[in-house]
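step: validate -> pass
step: tokenize input -> pass
step: predict -> running
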Amino acid sequence: MVHPFLILEWLGQKLHLDTLIANPESLKAVVYTFLVMAILIVVAFLASRSITLVPSGLQNFMETVVAGVEGLLEETMGEEGKAYFPLIATFALFILVSNLIGLIPGFSPPTANLNTNAALALTVFVMTHVIGIKKHGAAYFKHFMGPVWWLAPLIFIIEIIGHLARPLSLTLRLFGNMFGHELVLMIFFSLVPLFLPIPMMLMGVLVAFIQTFVFTLLAMIYIAGALEEAH
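step: predict -> pass
step: emit ->
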């Protein structure tokens, strides 16, 4: 995707790094990913360095965010889901900040890159089955057999296809929405660089929150399904 101006791309050209890198698009996504990680680490440090009984400022904001994620987690997964709060909250915060950073002129969201989203989706896929096996042991594989033994071969194939489609669906949904929004925003910035893109940027905030919610909710639903007893 060709942006009117990207800070990292400009810096790479100034340092003549673009000629030394085989795949600059992938490297750009990795660098922006590390930037998002750095932002989250700094914000977490600032919010927790002087915790008070009556929160204010950044601590109050972060407690509100954490409480929102925890509330959604309890509603979706129940009390048992609290053990997986660090995993779910990490997904939510990383994806949200990654989506929102693309609204800042000169920055590109890591979630507009297919590789970033595939890594997130594969993490959900692997952790779902790891959690399921840890919870149920070998009995976890009953999830793939269905309730009727003589239909087990057919149900097993259907379940395998369905589970393999999950990371593909998570990847393409997030990538398609964020890449599409970036593309539309780039076109508007190229044509009318001042006031016309503002409504699109406001819509981008809504898209960023919705896509974060959808990805996080699906991750919780998949893990909750792995925790359930097979019937």
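step: describe -> Residues 1-5 have pLDDT under 50 and may be disordered.
step: cleanup -> pass
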